[in-house]
Write a structure and sequence with these properties.
Helices cover 56% and strands 12% of the residues. A 5-stranded parallel sheet has the order 2-1-3-4-5, covered by helices on one side. Strand 1, helix 2 and strand 2 form a beta-alpha-beta unit. Helix 5 packs across helix 6 and helix 6 packs across helix 7.
């Protein structure tokens, strides 16, 4: 077996391994495809739970949600737009027309078209969950960048406070804040935010 083949097989095993034990909620009307879908989900070692459509919201207690396409689906999702708590896979009908704009509004991670095949189900789960995890990583990175930006802004404002209060230069003010943070076993950013908040509360913050 070539090294490329071994690498490919290892990646395949890793993708399927990530699916094992995941709770998969399936919301679907009764048809000949539903039982096949549930069997294939079981073969992939997931934990499928079947629901017929009821109520105003799609069930949410899962890592993957698989549901039928229907007009207004985006309004039934149990999360805010752009803040999904599970991978979403939408099943589209075999013959009936569907609105591409309504499907897009639901922002699925993958689409599964009837009639299902074993490979199509596997591909939808692997790609859908992979896309969901990728977007979560991007959101986490964006949140860390925003946090770092807030810290930088707070440090600059805190330096202005210390420079005015203690008649220090910018470098001296930063070293003072850094020393205080070390003594209190906190980060420079957190100490700076606390200092700025205190001065904001007292109405004594120098103009930026």
């Amino acid at each position: 077996m070539s090294q490329d083949r071994q690498s490919s097989d290892g990646a395949e095993a890793g993708s399927l391994q990530r699916l094992r034990g995941l709770r998969v909620v399936v919301e679907s009307e009764i048809d000949d495809q539903r039982d096949f879908l549930m069997r294939e989900l079981g073969k992939l070692r997931t934990e499928p739970h079947l629901y017929t459509r009821r109520g105003d919201a799609v069930p949410a207690d899962a890592e993957i949600v698989v549901c039928d396409y229907a007009p207004g689906l985006d309004r039934r999702l149990p999360w805010m737009t752009g803040e999904p708590t599970a991978a979403l896979i939408v099943m589209v009908p075999r013959h009936e027309e569907f609105s591409s704009s309504m499907l897009e509004a639901a922002t699925p991670d993958a689409v599964l078209a009837r009639p299902f095949t074993a490979n199509a189900i596997k591909a939808a789960l692997v790609m859908g969950y992979s896309q969901f995890r990728y977007e979560r990583r991007l959101q986490s990175k964006a949140a860390r960048l925003e946090e770092n930006l807030r810290a930088v802004r707070a440090i600059e404002r805190a330096k202005a406070i210390v420079m005015t209060a203690r008649s220090l230069s910018g470098d001296e003010a930063y070293q003072y804040i850094r020393t205080q943070a070390m003594e209190r076993r906190t980060t420079v950013g957190q100490l700076a935010e606390a200092l700025v908040s205190s001065y904001d509360l007292l109405g004594r913050l120098p103009a930026a």
